[in-house]
């Protein structure tokens, strides 16, 4: 049975897309059939992060019935399968987020995991993602604003009957001038399943448009993302 897991955050800039890509890659490395979807129709970045600046075959065109699922499913050189959304403003204007359920229906049974990179915040588009997903992983940074905003995201996820699997604490700085892991868990009432350091290898991977755990498999961030994938496989 396919598990649909949405990566969510209370605000932008916390590295949610980077985390979604790296966890998807980690699942692929564990021989789990995984498909990554960019459901952020407003400001999509999956294609940009994986080397496609202006994708022609996109989720947008599938939802308009112009392309088949196989045509919009791309494969990165790392072996990761992903479905990008169009960065075009014109394409965004043509979209109806309510149609997202169609891609979920087509992917059900097609993979072990479908990782969904959701928009940030609490808007209508986020609700449409959560309405169709089963579980969520929360991505936060160790700042008070990020964690407090994430509280609302947790409530929204629960309102849509999503199981909150835990927290990925991203861009941490060894506890210096930031919230401690214990404080983040206390505020959110959720367990941190990985603590991703602010690391130069992540920046290098972003520049090279590839998952950090493909280019730098034994780096600290890669090992932490592997922990997330292993936890998901145990659920």
Can you walk me through this structure?
By secondary structure, the protein is α/β, with parallel strands linked by helices. The chain is 43% helix and 18% strand. It contains twelve helices and eight strands. The protein has helices spanning 16-29, 46-49, 59-63, 69-72, 89-93, 100-107, 124-132, 144-159, 181-188, 200-208, 212-215, 220-234, and strands spanning 3-8, 34-38, 74-75, 81-83, 113-117, 135-140, 163-172, 192-197. The chain has an eight-stranded mixed sheet, with helices on both faces. β7 (163-172), α9 and β8 form a beta-alpha-beta unit. The longest helix has 16 residues, at 144-159. It is globular, with a radius of gyration of 16 Å. The two termini are 13 Å apart. The model has no long low-confidence stretch (mean pLDDT 95).
In short:
The protein has twelve helices and eight strands. It is α/β, with parallel strands linked by helices and 235 residues long. An eight-stranded mixed sheet has the order 3-4-2-5-1-6-7-8, sandwiched between helices.
